[in-house]
Amino acid sequence: MFDVGLTELMVIAVVALVVIGPERLPKVARTAGLLLGRLQRYVGDVKADINREMQLDELKKLQQQVTTEVSSVEASVSHEIREIEGAVNKSVAPDTDVAVPPTPTSEVVATDATPAPSLAAAGQATETKT
After folding, report:
1. Are 20 and 30 in contact (CB under 8 A)?
2. What's the CA gap between 35 and 39, in Å, rounded?
3. Is 0.85 surpassed by the pTM of this model?
4. Would you call 119 helix, strand, or coil by DSSP?
5. DSSP letter assigned to residue 3
6. How far apart are CA 51 and CA 45, in angstroms?
7. Which distant-in-sequence residues (6+ apart) come within 8 Å of 4 by Cβ?
8. Per-residue DSSP letters for 56-109?
9. Helix (H/G/I), strand (E/B), else coil: 53
10. Residue 25 CA, distance from chain mean position
11. Positions in the chain whose pLDDT score sits under 50
12. What is the pLDDT of residues 13-39, one digit of tens each?
């Protein structure tokens, strides 16, 4: 932080000893140490607050980025689903145009292999016998 060497500290200590005096120097040094400790804690707290704010900003940016990615993936998935539904509807649509033969309802089916005689054939047979 400060570029102060050992010789410069000795000069400052000698000047402080001459200006303040030997009887008040320990009390002033103790007070200066306490103030320096408070200053360091304050600087540390400010740095921590700044770091938290930076992390919060980064998290907000990350959240926004994830939100945009999720919305783009959601849009592409819904687009693909619409395309698949359209393809399925096109493939099912021709099958509905084909005529489906009617299912037999209540017809009487002959149990033996001989076909049932029709009414016209029965009428002709009775005329030829007479």
Report:
1. no
2. 6
3. no
4. helix
5. -
6. 10
7. 12
8. HHHHHHHHHHHHHHHHHHHHHHHHHHHHHHHHHHHHHHHHHHSPPPPPP-S---
9. helix
10. 64
11. none
12. 899 889 988 899 899 989 999 999 999
